[in-house]
Amino acid sequence: MANFLLVVRTHTHFILLYLASIAVVCFLFPREGKFPYEFQKGKIWAHSDLYASFDIPILKAQQEIDAEKDSLRNHFMMYYNYRAETVKQQIEQYGHTFDTHWGKSGLPSYRRFFLYRLGADVLDSVYRKGILQDEEPALQQSLSEHLTVIKNNVGEEVPKREVFTQKSAYETVMRVVRGLMNEDEKNFMKDLDLNNFIQPNLICNVDLTHSAQTESLRKISPTRGVIPLNRKIIARGEVVNDEKYVFLISMKSEFEHRVGHSGNFRQILAGQVCIVALCFLLVYLYLMHFQKDIFRNLARTGFLLLQMVLFIGVACFTMRNVFFNLYAIPFLLLPVIVATFFDARTSTFVFMVTILLIGLLAPNGLEFVILNFIAGVVSIANVRTVYRRGNLFKTVLWIFAVYSLTYTALFLMQGVKFQQIEWMNYIRFGISGILLFAIYPSIFIFEKIFGMISDITLMELSDTNQPLLRKLSEVAPGTFQHSLQVANIAEEVIQKIGGNPLLIRTGALYHDIGKISRPVYFIENQAGGHNPHDDLLPEDSARIIIEHVHNGVEIAKKNRVPRHIIDFIRTHHGTTTVRYFYHQYQLQYPDQKTERAKFTYPGPIPFSKEMVVLMMCDSIEAASRSLKERDKNVISELVDNVVNFQIMEDQFNDADITYRDINTAKQIIKNRLMSIYHVRIEYPKENNQKQK
User: Fold this and answer.
1) Quick one: 116 and 176 in the same domain?
2) 186 exposed, middle or buried (CB, 10 Å; 0-12, 13-18, 19+)?
3) In whole numbers, what is the pLDDT of the chain averaged over residues?
4) In angstroms, rounded to a whole number, what is the distance separating the alpha carbons of residues 122 and 175?
5) pTM value?
């Protein structure tokens, strides 16, 4: 019990982090039940006979609902306001114009009243039926044969053919008038130009029309008919054909609706908390047993959990909004981002747990999980070259191809006609692939927030045109060449034994950056045969040599070099001693007690495989420069002595490196040094004799 409480106190922050992640995910999950059966169109129903446990409204297919909506939009009835004041104004205007023209007409006076009333009555008759504007735009949008005319706040449905346009109203008026007149009277009416008194008196009521249309669309029923209680829906072994599929979808929808509105939230929440907690427990156990460096680091653990919560949150938001689709969301950003900062195995595990949780909510959960698992593996396989934009573009094309091929295969397995495939999903796959380019800003943001480093940043830092490296090459050219040589050897070693080649290369280039402060005190930068250490006491010389570590850290911080690279500067000598000056001090003062601390680097010792390899390569490359003879045996002895001394000094105790890795590294370093110094390989004697 005491040990358990100690573990809890030690890992309080980690436990709270996991609990907070579980709480957020459970909060994001919708409070709805899940239909207990999985099914696919065209597949065999492998479950027991299924009966309707309640009356089930049969859902219409989305295509059917869309067709009804389109029909309603095309045949909706327009609403028009009847403008009585327009009729009154135009009749009065007709009377004034008639009186003005009559005095000049020369027609008999007894015909005046007849002609006036004839024109006024004909105009009034067409106005009563209603006049629309010529080529009424609103009316042309509807294929309905009727429209509604609103008079005195009362709507009346009128056949469209019974109302006039301005053109048809004028033609009707002139036809009636001309049929009852002689030639002089026709000319008189022509001069009046009755077209001037024909104006639209039916004005479209846009707001009322839109409201009525919206209400009609809202009233479209999503169902047709009902499956009665206890009716068999499907029997075991039956094929899920189109009809059965509609019945099953209807039952699934009604089941989840009833469960969601039954008020049984506690049961649903308890199940969600349990399954989410188990999934996060898997992540916890994986990190504890296989990724202890992440497990012990709060920031790294928080980064992984944040990625899971973010993508689950995006999935929940997408499923609540009809305007978005899960297949257009770039879920593959998760494994790519995680693999960029960690390793492919961790990326795969975290991604699988995440898509399993999302699959619990997705409409076609199994299809979603299979699609993303296959595409995720492809993305992870290519993630190590994500810093090369050309390779990322190729990765996007690969992912789109894998998505499309997998989706097509799953669709064909259902036995549905190829013409019924949802082609829009291929566009969504393309959108998802293109959004993978968001990895660049994402990586930059996460680097700043969590203090991590990616291969993209390492590529930038390892460019020898960086100001700090360029200054090193100018101020301390010997040190710069030494750093390049160490970087090449260390990179070759780490590629063989496993690790991050870009990280160790960058660390090697910067590990001696502190020598910029006093370059002449280091033998590789000395010229002319003068050594300034000849004028110093051994302890002063050791202090200057040791200071290059502290100076390197300060210079790196000032130039905003990431912490991961600064760790290489701090650890590349570990807690070893400056042995040459330490022995010099002992020779000069044999009777005094040696203060070893003055000649010891401050450390810490290396705590990663890459740091150990850098320490080995740095010490061996520097020592090899002082060799008077460079043959196979001398180089081999040098490498063995240096590495054995570092092991004896306990410099590798904090790093996850095996003796097998160390022996492999030693052999690679030996071969590389022999290649650098052009040491000829001695062939066995029998081979030499054969060659002779």
Assistant:
1) yes
2) middle
3) 83
4) 10
5) 0.64
